[in-house]
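#structure-requests
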Amino acid sequence: MRRPLLFAAVGVANTAVDFGVFLALTRVLGVGPVAASALGFLTGSAHSYVANGLLTFGDRGARLASAARVLRFAAVTALCLGVSVAAIAAALPFLPDVAAKAVSVLATFAAGYLLSGRFVYAAPAQAASAAGGGAGAGPVDPIQPREAFVGDRRDGGRGG
């Protein structure tokens, strides 16, 4: 239960950064809501990469300075940005801009969690398996910690 709670807490902080940038751009600088939403999303995403890498998925041994990890994060972020922008654009004809932004946040939360756990912060063996490189490894559960971590304090050092 620890990992989803950490992801949610980081998500709240990311959302605060996202909304703060969105409000500053729309209210202070007069930027349109779709562009402001995209910039807020990207700023929150930068925070997300570091905070989730250190806090939520830190026990998986993910190196944040890994070029491959940064590229996977960029791909997941691009996908989630598309979901975010599409959601706010679809909601704007029916809702005020802040409510439409809230819809976009909800639309990206689940996708971001699943993709982050599966592709961005997965242990190396999990990332290969999730990408189709593991023979018969089965699906990776982004909520559960890496099972093959020998000496993990959570399992009393039994090794999974």
